[in-house]
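During the second year of the project, the team shifted from modelling isolated chains to modelling whole assemblies. The rationale, set out in the original proposal, was that interfaces cannot be judged from single-chain predictions alone. As a representative example for this report, we include one of the complexes processed in the last quarter. Its constituent sequences, exactly as entered into the pipeline, are reproduced here:
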Amino acid sequence: MASPVKQAKIQVKDDETIFGYIHHVSDCKVSSVKRIKLFNAVLQTNREDFKNMAVFAPEMHTAFMQAEKNRSPVKVKNFTKRISAQGEGFEVYCGKETQVSVVERLPFCFKEPPEKAVLSINEVKAMAPKQQVRAVVGRVIHVSDVTETVECRGSCMETQACYIEDSGGNIKLQLWDKLIGRVVVGQTYKWSNLSTRMFGGKLYVTTTRHSEIELMDPLPGLKKEIDFHNDEGEVKIIEGKITSVEVVVSRRCCRCQAWQEEFEAKAKFHRCVRCKRLQVLQMYESTVSASLTLSGKSEEELMVPNTVVKRYDLYMYVIVIIIV
Ligand SMILES: [Zn+2]
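Output from the structure prediction step:
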């Protein structure tokens, strides 16, 4: 009996369907080459076989996230095979025409891809610079009192140093952006998607745009008290009345992270210079830096970075602490 459903099935060739479990669904991003929106994932196609996926259909992002979270076995139809960047096997490219549906069961179990394995701090320290660290678990043993502002591709970015440890050792971790002020000394976190850097012959790790933190239970094999000393320099206290404040606000698109050059703060919407989306102003995250003039015994000028301005709402008429 040739029902229309059956006919449709016959049209799909065997090699156009692939089964597996979905892992490591990334955030949606804009490809640097063609400015197309996509996200990445890993498809486990067998007990030990993992294929990289590039999905050029952001509307499928939620379904992918769900499939990963629920460990659902899925069927992927109408995709393109691409030779993998590593030269071995293929990658799965999905587009608007690709169909992903949950199936009942598969003859193999959900298993994390090998690179997701959490690294120890010593394993991270043995890596080369500029390598991606999928995940590391560590207790925060020190957070710098101050943040630093550095210029990066024409705009000012704020950064803060901290140190984390596991039973094997400790490492410096440079926090950027949203992660500043979010970590507490003594707490243990799982840090995902970090990157290694080298400075002064020492390897450290830095957070990236895709970094995430997750609060974890304390690690076994660590003493309760934290035994860590880091000489950050002398803390200088300046007291005085603020006589002038100059505030610079920069805004960045939450979707594609592009800094916006001209921004009409009174308008309701703004079109992003890069992704060209017309979005409400709340979609643009603001970064504030303030320059203060203090009159005390002598006149002093101070640069106050974003997190400090936001934390104290600019009511800093009391004491300002800086490190020299
Ligand atoms: Zn944008």
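Residues 253, 255-256, 258, 272, 274-275, 277 surround zinc ion (CB under 6 Å). The domain at 18-102 is CATH 2.40.50.140 (OB fold (Dihydrolipoamide Acetyltransferase, E2P)).
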